[in-house]
Design goal:
mainly alpha; 27 helices; 601 residues; globular; two-stranded antiparallel sheet; 5% strand; five-stranded mixed beta sheet
Length: 601
């Protein structure tokens, strides 16, 4: 059954669109960037827009080969729009829009797929909304869809591609399979070969369990499709290899793809079962229904082995292959991060809707699942009522007053109120035997996002980013003779983003002091916007309170120019820095900056 032209389809997609705008777009540019990775993406994209070099990403005067260019191109496009500095004063709306739009479009694709190909049951109108909200309300999706990094854009482009592949296989018409391969090419341009690997694993595992796999494979036309994907994704890699050669190959393919997968990078070592744990967190508070949906998909798969099944009724089996492919691939990876689970969340949301369809009657499974879910909600409520126990354990050096701020901003009180009402409503709806209790709770959770997340974002921005924006303004106002700028101790790439200046980042150690002296004399980088005068008599140093108390830094003669939050701005004479550096070298210390990856970006 394909509901291609129904009013229900239009209404459903409008509901999904409004919900997505509330979750992903509302107040998107009202807070600053969150360190440490987003400012690197934003700075590289803005540099492309302003310099006109759209080929090679650069940050802080050096190449950034971490990710392919699509995320930078999209951010750069928004930075290039007229009057950008007026309607996007922080620059965060332009940087975050690609992530937000990627999630929004995927949310619409999930809803539309279930509209056009209802799987079973009698909830054709509600199931697409449940699946779309199941994706959008995932805690991981809520966080990363409003973050200026490439993970949500990968999830969006790859997810749309995989759904389009299934739609083509499920369709009875003879349309050419083009758009699926286009989005796969865009996914490869977003994050690299991992997109192709995940798509191949998903489609191959699905075809393996289909009796008419040859005809399904012909439908997606892999020969012409691969050519389309290659034409979209490969040219940039070739041009970059021609232009930059071995450094690009070693950094992008060697370090950020092969080495990340085969060895632990940046201390992100986790056990093999790590993503089973993340899968639980990513679907909260409705995790029990994900596991039930997975179980029902296994039942459908087992049934299809015995009886012939229409391909149009295999979406849940396909989603199971999708989720399993991501789980296995990244579980094998040596480096593991929570964000690696994002490409599996669309499949998890569809499987949650499978549980929604199957729980039509108040059988034992229905009762048990809702009891478990209510206990989860009750546990969250209790956690906030006893917040005095865990608030004291918060120790964030960048936000020393975080515990008291959470109370004074009313965030703890709002969390208590919301989760208590949420739990009570769940109990009432369960007692009244409400048929669509799942959807009602999703709607309440949607409303609660604006109630809770807005003050949390504002607090985080005020505490962590406002001091850096203020100190950047101070630097721009008092910089003398293109002084070199350095940051000691806590490293914040947003200082480079906000100040638009080359920044030398060093630890607060004795070696860090020697490194800074040495680098000013030898590591003379520049970019299109900032060309420091490395011969100038003084330099500006941003140093946090903790680092400023280190004897080897506090003893250097310095002029304190201002302080915002925990960050101090000093002016140091270059001769004084060199003199103290020579003293440390004679004491047996030496520079080490040439032996490590400076600034890590």
């Amino acid at each position: 059954m394909i509901l291609l032209n129904s009013k229900k389809r239009i209404i459903t997609l409008l509901i999904v669109l409004v919900s997505g705008i509330i979750l992903f777009i509302l107040d998107l540019g009202k807070t600053g960037l969150v360190d440490e990775t987003p400012p690197l993406f934003a700075a590289a994209a803005r540099a492309m827009s302003e310099s006109g070099d759209w080929l090679t990403p650069k940050v802080n005067g050096i190449f950034r080969f971490d990710k392919p260019p699509l995320i930078y191109w999209l951010m750069g496009f928004f930075y290039s729009l007229p009057k950008n500095e007026i309607w996007d004063s922080f620059g965060t709306l332009s940087a975050r829009l690609p992530s937000a739009l990627g999630s929004l479009f995927l949310m619409l694709m999930i809803g539309d797929t279930l509209c056009c190909w209802p799987q079973k049951g009698d909830k054709y109108f509600l199931t697409p909304i449940v699946a779309s909200l199941g994706f959008a309300l995932s805690p991981l999706i809520i966080i990363w869809s409003r973050t200026a990094v490439s993970d949500s854009l990968l999830t969006g482009t790859l997810g749309i591609s995989l759904l389009l592949f299934w739609r083509r296989m499920a369709s009875e018409n003879n349309d050419k399979c083009i758009s699926a391969w286009v989005f796969l090419g865009l996914a490869i341009l977003t994050k690299g070969p991992v997109a192709f690997v995940l798509a191949t694993l998903t489609i191959t595992s699905f075809l393996f369990i289909q009796k008419d796999w040859r005809s399904l494979l012909c439908k997606i036309n892999p020969k012409k499709g691969l050519l389309i994907t290659i034409l979209i994704s490969v040219p940039w890699y070739i041009l970059e290899l021609i232009k930059e050669g071995k450094p690009f190959w070693d950094n992008f393919f060697g370090y950020h793809n092969f080495q990340r997968y085969t060895s632990v990078v940046n201390n992100h070592a986790e056990p093999f079962w790590f993503f089973l744990y993340i899968m639980i967190l990513a679907s909260l508070p409705f995790t029990p229904f994900l596991y039930h949906g997975v179980f029902e998909a296994f039942k459908d798969f087992s049934k299809s082995l015995k009886e012939s099944c229409k391909v149009s009724e295999t979406l849940y089996t396909y989603s199971l292959c999708w989720l399993t492919s991501v789980l296995i691939f990244f579980s094998i990876s040596a480096t593991k991060l929570p964000s690696y689970w994002l490409p599996a969340i669309p499949a998890a949301a569809i499987l949650i809707s499978n549980s929604f369809i199957n729980l039509k009657d108040r059988n034992k499974t229905y009762v048990y699942l809702w009891i478990i879910n209510i206990l989860i909600l009750f546990g969250l409520s209790i956690a906030f009522f006893f917040s005095n126990i865990w608030l004291g354990s918060i120790n964030d050096p960048e936000m020393p007053n975080l515990a008291s701020d959470l109370i004074s901003y009313g965030i703890i009180f709002k969390a208590k109120l919301f989760f208590s009402l949420f739990t009570v409503l769940a109990i009432i709806l369960f007692s009244l035997k409400a048929k669509d209790i799942f959807l009602y709770l999703q709607i309440l959770l949607l409303i609660g996002q604006t109630f809770l997340m807005s003050p949390i974002r504002k607090l985080a921005d005020t505490s962590r980013q406002l001091p850096l924006r203020n100190i950047s303004k101070l630097i721009l106002g008092i910089r003398d003779g293109k002084e070199t700028l350095a940051m000691i101790g806590i490293r914040k790439p947003s200082l480079h983003y906000y100040s638009r200046q080359i920044v030398f980042y060093e630890p607060n150690t004795k070696e860090g002091l020697i490194n800074l002296s040495d680098r000013i004399n030898t590591d003379r980088r520049k970019n299109y916007k900032d060309q420091p005068d490395y011969e100038y008599k003084s330099l500006l140093v941003v140093i946090d309170d903790y680092s400023s108390q280190e004897p080897h830094w506090s003893k250097i003669n310095h002029q304190k120019l201002g302080q915002y939050g925990i960050y101090n701005l000093w002016r140091i004479q270059k001769s004084d820095l060199n003199k103290f550096s020579d003293f440390l070298v004679k004491s047996g210390y030496k520079s080490d900056w040439k032996n490590r990856k400076v600034e890590k970006f």
